[in-house]
Amino acid sequence: MQILGRTTSANVQKVVWLMTELGLAYERADVGGKFGGNRTAEYLSMNPNGRVPTLIDGDEVIWESNTILRYLANQYGPTPLYPQDSVLRSECERWMDWQLSTLNAPMTPLFQMMVRMTPEQRDPEVVAKHLATARAEFELLDTSLAARPYLGGEAFTLGDICVGVIAYRWFELPIERGTPLPNLARWFEAVASRPGFQQHVVMPLS
Question: What are the backbone dihedrals phi and psi of residue 198, each rounded to the nearest 5 degrees, phi first?
């Protein structure tokens, strides 16, 4: 298998983290960001969005990071990371969808402003708005984790991978995070201890 995408992309990190969890061999090529290559005709013929990652598995080409996670878990499972039980699977998948639809909304612009802009380029009011929204979402996570060790319940799942890569950015950004959230901190410590996280997510933000 081949993964097209740079290591600093959170969406690429999700995929390579899962592949480490599943013990799958792969090759990766730097695409996107400073490496470019994601707007070429060849790349767009595989992934019309021109984003990373793209997974090539034999004759199959899959794009969209959360879809890639589901594909890998189905193709190379079964795995407890993607439960077979429909109720447990819904617990996992709702957090995968929440990460894309809700958590990314404030975290993506906040990351862009705090990492890829100079202080002079930032609008303090816009930063404050996204910071407050992100804080509210992590408070929601903290509440949800009060009675369970992981987002999907008792076991680590794809939902924790999806949210975990964004939580790393939350804890690493040079921002004021407010009062500590103990349930979030406990969950993040467990997630961050996994070898795939240490290998593929822990790195300077860029």
Answer: -60, -35
